[in-house]
Every structure is written in structure tokens, then in C-alpha cells.
Design brief:
Radius of gyration: 22 Å
Structural class: alpha/beta
Oligomer: single chain
Strand order of the largest sheet: 1-2-3-4-5-6-7-8
Largest sheet: 8 strands, parallel, barrel
Number of strands: 8
Distance between the termini: 59 Å
CATH class of the largest domain: Alpha Beta
Shape: elongated
Number of helices: 12
Length: 275
Amino acid sequence: MRVTINQLQEMKNCGEKISMITAYDYTSGKLLEEVGIPIILVGDSLGQVILGYDSTIPVTMADMIHHTKAVVRGTEKSHIVADLPFLTYQASIDDALYNAGRLLKEGGAQSVKVEGGQKIAKTVSQMVDIGIPVMGHIGLTPQSVNQLGGYKVQGKTSDSAAELIEDAKALENAGVYALVLESIPIPLGKLITEQITIPTIGIGAGVHCDGQVQVFHDLLGLFTDFTPRHARQYSKLNEIIKTAVSSYIDEVKTGDFPSKRESFDVNDNILKELT
């Protein structure tokens, strides 16, 4: 049985912090579940981390379904939430319902995540009404990077902070079961968390959020193109991997690999028949 949205709400109610990690494949999902991660986000950040784009904008529904299916196959208990990519829910409610349904039906996700506040509240409400659990995402919304003028901290003025509070309340009223707060000041993250009843998941929003989310590759030091300020590296697997692969190259060159242990033999009588 997978973690449900009700269980996530119970975690907030009991004061238990929620750990969420963004991952994109079978192996990562399997590893994360083995250590007890309750919720895994299949994020459209795969556009940058996995596919090498400079933003999340080019990511397609096909990309998201492909990677969501992989994470789902690697897990049995973790709740899987998948991002709806750019332009799959903004143009019309019909688009939103259809594409969200595909992530659940074809991808195997248990819920979807959308970016935006009051402007998409009606769309969120429609998705929830037909049985699609929705996670919200406000603050720095990467799909709007071109409009925002870059990856900048949001809510630093009184007007923008007030708007984010209203966004959070509108999304809660629309039925989201949790809300990602990205790149906003610590006091604002605390204020929003106190003013809504659903779990808040911070990414660069301070310690007062009900939970935190980080990207698998950032957490482990695998993605080295850039390191976001909100990320903490708990390992430097990029260095470990390069050392391991270098050793492999050296041993192939010297003939130390493969050894008998990594090879297969055949009966001498069969060999005689072949020579």
C-alpha cells in the first residue's frame, strides 16, 4: 500500500516533518523507497538534470510519462507525484484534465503537481473534483522563468509576499493536498505554513515548512552544472564515479579486467573439437 495524501496530512497534524526527493528513474526510486522516503516527485526538472536542456520548458508529456512509469516500477510504498509540464494545463481546463489523467492512468502516479497560484485555482478545483489529487507550487515557478527574468527569490516585497499568501489560500480552497514553496524568504515560508492547514514542502523556503524537497542528483553531488543555493550535498558521487570509471579504463588497458572471476570457461573436450 502506497503512502496516501491522508497520511501526509496526518504527518503535518502530528508535527512529523515530511521528506520528499525528486527522482527520475527505476534505480533511484528503488533506492529512495528502501530508506523510507514517503513521497517522490518525478519533476520536470528532468529536462535539465537528465535531458540537458537549459530549462524545464521543452519537457513533454511523453517525457513525463516515460520517467514516471520508471519510478513507479521501482517503488511499492512511496507516494509518486508527477509534474504536469509547461503548456499541458495552462491553455484550457480540458487540457489540464486530460493530461493530469494521463499521468495517473498511463504513468502510474498517485497525484500531479502544477505551478501557479490564484490564476490556476479554478483548474485545480476541476481536477480535484474528478478525483485527481493535486499538489500546488508557488514562489519561484521554473516554468515561468522567462517571465520572472531568471531563477530569483520571490516574495521579497510586501505586495509580492501578500500575493503569495493569497495564492496559498486560493490553492488550499481549490483542494490541493500539499503546497511546494520555492525560493521565498524564511519568514514568509513560516507565515504561509501557519496560515494554511495543508502540508507545505519547502525548497529554499526555510526550516519552518512542514517538509522539504531536494533533487536526488543535487543531494548526492551527481549534477555539477550548477548547485542551487537551497541544495546541500550529502555526498560527492560525481567524484566517486569518475574514480571508479578511471580504474575500469586502466584495468582494461593493463588486462587486469576481466579476470577469471568475471569470465566463463568451457570443457576442454569441446575446445578440442573446435580446433
